[in-house]
């Protein structure tokens, strides 16, 4: 049996801050040369989790990526995406946009509309290189996430995953990672079993900073994460690395008086 362990990744230990006048960002993993992350280079196939806020009319101009699976989770505001595959899209709250960079793409991400945009960008390592670049979007309502886990991204070949550019169900990722989200009401608890495949199971949780940018001690929403007799309490901006056995029950309880938006990643599903 795997020794169950939860390692808290406190918000104040994330990298980032305000590297540009128009950008507030927080890094979970190393982003050289800006942030070396005290040895937190990745977690399984997870390589980047950046929580970004961009002011109106500003953003990341055209730049290149290769070999990563890149997906953006919109928290608030609008993000205009353009890329070298001729995709142009305005992403809003509830949208997931996934780019399989493969052999190479160029894209830009700019704040659209009349309010700042807040989004979480995630990168995962694909299971093989030199894939054909692909682009996908999905939309999930608040009701689909309210007090339950909604599966937003899952490996190609998983149940309910299609290769349509826009479609129903989770977006397809060429990586052994699944991405879930919930909007959890006060005093509510939700649970989910760790994947059943034998061997150590890993998960990562992140509490989104919905109450505002903060690079210090976690504030705002307050949750407890429990599994296998272990538990940690988390605030907005805090993360947690979970190591457990197959089928162990992971429980998240909202201890505070405000809604908590929590992201969950199943890692190394193979």
UniProtKB/TrEMBL annotation:
<feature type="domain" description="Pirin N-terminal">
    <location>
        <begin position="20"/>
        <end position="123"/>
    </location>
</feature>
<dbReference type="InterPro" id="IPR011051">
    <property type="entry name" value="RmlC_Cupin_sf"/>
</dbReference>
<dbReference type="Pfam" id="PF02678">
    <property type="entry name" value="Pirin"/>
</dbReference>
<comment type="similarity">
    <text>Belongs to the pirin family.</text>
</comment>
<dbReference type="InterPro" id="IPR012093">
    <property type="entry name" value="Pirin"/>
</dbReference>
<protein>
    <submittedName>
        <fullName>Pirin domain-containing protein</fullName>
    </submittedName>
</protein>
<dbReference type="InterPro" id="IPR014710">
    <property type="entry name" value="RmlC-like_jellyroll"/>
</dbReference>
<dbReference type="InterPro" id="IPR003829">
    <property type="entry name" value="Pirin_N_dom"/>
</dbReference>
